[in-house]
Specification:
- The chain is α/β, with parallel strands linked by helices.
- The chain has two domains: 122 residues, Rossmann fold; 66 residues, Winged helix-like DNA-binding domain superfamily/Winged helix DNA-binding domain (Arc Repressor Mutant, subunit A), CATH 1.10.10.
- Strands 2-1-3-4-5-6 form a six-stranded parallel beta sheet, with helices on both faces.
- Strand 3, helix 3 and strand 4 form a beta-alpha-beta unit.
- Helix 3 runs parallel beside helix 4, helix 7 crosses helix 8 and helix 7 packs across helix 10.
- The relative contact order is 0.11.
- InterPro entries: CheY-like_superfamily, NreC/VraR/RcsB-like_REC, Sig_transdc_resp-reg_C-effctor, Sig_transdc_resp-reg_receiver, Tscrpt_reg_LuxR_C, WalR-like.
Length: 224
């Protein structure tokens, strides 16, 4: 039997948390291990429960979701914990800050229930989740005020031609299966390439690969 995805919900609105908790609990492959109403509680509970994934609201009183994400991403004992941030608007400028801080993806709060569950599965599996529509606008804003993203130390200069192709496809939102189909590879080979690229660039996860690809100019906003 597959171990359920352990989910921590962090949102300062009790009714929102309750709705998300009911939704997550309805999925046979997930369980809610804790709920937090502040960023400080989210960090403490992430450490205490060893959740696989934190669904994090960006705007919370005191320590907000961005700073909470930064603390979680910087904690070596929480290296396996992924953060999926939620925002009210898909053009929220704070989403870029959350990605810099170490979030693995983002969704808007009015997303459909099935999409939220799929997003949790995607991020928990180590994939980046960057809503295709607003991502280019957000990355464009990021490029207008460049700042080195957390954990992404290098650029694509040291990558092989094949690795650059794979990185380009990661930045366009393709998963390992999509990359494999586009390049005529097996999914396992595509996964190996992605892992090797992450190691070379010092990236924590695929979301940071996307940032590196845009920041370096390998992929430009609006490019398909």
């Amino acid at each position: 039997m597959t171990t359920p995805i352990r989910v921590l919900l962090a949102d300062d609105q009790h009714l929102v948390r309750a709705a998300f908790a009911m939704l997550v609990a309805s999925a046979p492959d997930m369980e809610v291990v804790a709920q937090a109403g502040t960023g400080t509680e989210a960090v403490e509970l992430a450490r205490g429960t060893k959740a696989d994934l934190v669904v994090m609201d960006i705007r919370m009183p005191g320590l907000d979701g961005i700073e909470a994400t930064r603390i979680i991403a910087a904690d070596a004992s929480l290296a396996a914990v992924r953060v999926l941030v939620l925002t009210t608007y898909d053009t929220d400028e704070h989403v870029v800050d959350a990605l810099r801080a170490g979030a693995s993806g983002f969704l808007v709060k009015d997303t459909r229930p099935a999409e939220l569950l799929d997003a949790i599965r995607t991020v928990a599996a180590g994939e980046a989740l960057l809503s295709p529509g607003p991502t280019s606008r957000l990355i464009a804003r990021f490029l207008s005020a460049p700042e080195a993203p957390t954990g992404a130390a290098g650029g694509p200069e040291g990558l092989s031609e094949r690795e650059r192709q794979v990185l380009t496809l990661v930045a366009r939102g393709l998963n390992n299966t999509g990359i494999a189909e586009a390049l005529g590879l097996s999914p396992l080979t595509a996964k190996t390439h992605v892992s090797r690229i992450m190691g070379k660039l010092g990236a924590r996860d695929r979301a940071q690969l996307v940032i590196v690809a845009y920041e370096s100019g390998l992929v430009t906003p609006g490019e398909r």
